[in-house]
């Protein structure tokens, strides 16, 4: 895949164009030797047309931000071509949460770690019930006014919380969020395909979705149903993959293996990897602005990058076969305009 084949979408109703595949360095804060391969990954991504790079102060308590900034500086890339984002977590650094005091300090610390004058997007990295949402939004706008960021967004907010953000911004004439960062993959569909639909339609909200491979479960690595801590000598396994297996698969191993091997068969027919199929399926959704992937090796990254070319292979027939395998299409919200008193009740 050459850079020319990368696809780009507007992020919500903003004029910001992002690559449909983004790169996140969440694991860089924990993995040994992360800086070297992170540098290689960034270089590979940029050469392939990826312009969206995601990190957060939470990742390794700032280590991931430091690694990203150092590698960007050493690479000598054109900053104007890149979209750099970071996120501020309510309780990671002290007791002040997403307060005015903490967010003012957080943006300065993040920029210092990344050796940047500004980031393109800041996220409120979870809703903070202990700080008035209006206070957090006010300071997000102040950060934008000070040119330390250009846009802001939410991460793992409920539809109701997102709606409240827009109500507050409309009341005060503030800049509203342009993006929500949420989990989305073949096993986690309701929030994107049903719950956020009013926000997409009413506010034109964009999305930067994470975990398109469900912690690696959809990559093909666990098609035999063998998910045990001793199988892979990787501390990240216990933190990310095993909890997702327990949540989405649980005791339904036989059914899961049937789904996973069925996906592998479809991928083989399309002449792509199972991981590419899963990521392309996520990007096929027009409500997905960019899908954030990570990697622990260049080989894995190159495979992920190839998923962009698979999007066009997902014909209605292929998508229908995938639906038959998954069997978890969310039930749409009731359209009461079409309701009839004579409709049989269940």
UniProtKB/TrEMBL annotation:
One of its GO terms (molecular function) is oxidoreductase activity. Residues 21-325 form the NADP-dependent oxidoreductase domain. InterPro entries: K_chnl_volt-dep_bsu_KCNAB-rel, NAD(P)_OxRdtase_dom_sf, NADP_OxRdtase_dom. Keywords: NADP, Oxidoreductase. Gene3D superfamilies: NADP-dependent oxidoreductase domain. The keyword Iron does not apply. Pfam families: Aldo_ket_red. SUPFAM superfamilies: NAD(P)-linked oxidoreductase (SSF51430). Belongs to the shaker potassium channel beta subunit family. This is NADP-dependent oxidoreductase domain-containing protein. It comes from Blepharisma stoltei.
């Amino acid at each position: 895949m050459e850079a020319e084949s990368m696809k780009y979408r507007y992020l919500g109703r903003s004029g910001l164009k992002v690559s449909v595949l983004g790169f996140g360095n969440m694991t860089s804060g924990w993995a040994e030797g992360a800086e070297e391969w992170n540098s290689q990954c960034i270089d590979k991504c940029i050469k392939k047309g990826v312009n969206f790079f995601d990190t957060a102060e939470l990742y390794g308590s700032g280590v991931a931000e430091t690694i990203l900034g150092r590698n960007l500086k050493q690479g000598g890339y054109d900053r104007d071509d890149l979209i750099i984002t970071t996120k501020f977590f309510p309780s990671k650094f002290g007791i002040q949460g997403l307060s005015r005091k903490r967010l003012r300090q957080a943006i300065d610390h993040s920029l210092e770690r990344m050796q940047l004058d500004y980031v393109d997007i800041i996220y409120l990295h979870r809703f903070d019930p202990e700080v008035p949402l209006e206070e957090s939004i006010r300071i997000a706008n102040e950060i934008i006014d000070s040119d330390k960021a250009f846009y802001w967004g939410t991460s793992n907010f409920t539809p109701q919380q997102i709606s409240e953000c827009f109500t507050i911004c409309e009341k005060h004439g503030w800049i509203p969020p342009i993006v929500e960062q949420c989990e989305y993959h073949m096993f986690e569909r309701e929030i994107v395909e049903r719950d956020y639909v009013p926000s997409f339609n009413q506010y034109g909200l964009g999305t930067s979705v994470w975990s398109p491979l469900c912690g690696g479960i959809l990559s093909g690595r666990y098609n035999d149903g063998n998910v045990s801590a001793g199988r892979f000598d990787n501390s990240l396994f216990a933190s990310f993959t095993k909890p997702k297996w327990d949540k989405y698969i649980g005791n339904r191993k036989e059914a899961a293996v049937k789904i996973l091997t069925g996906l592998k068969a479809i991928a083989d027919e399309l002449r792509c990897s199972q991981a590419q199929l899963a990521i392309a399926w996520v990007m096929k959704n027009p409500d997905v602005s960019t899908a954030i992937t990570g990697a622990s090796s260049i080989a894995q990254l190159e495979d992920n990058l190839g998923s962009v070319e698979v999007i066009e292979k997902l014909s209605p027939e292929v998508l229908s076969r995938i639906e038959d395998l998954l069997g978890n299409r969310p039930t749409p919200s009731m359209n009461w305009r079409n309701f009839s008193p004579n409709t049989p009740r269940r």
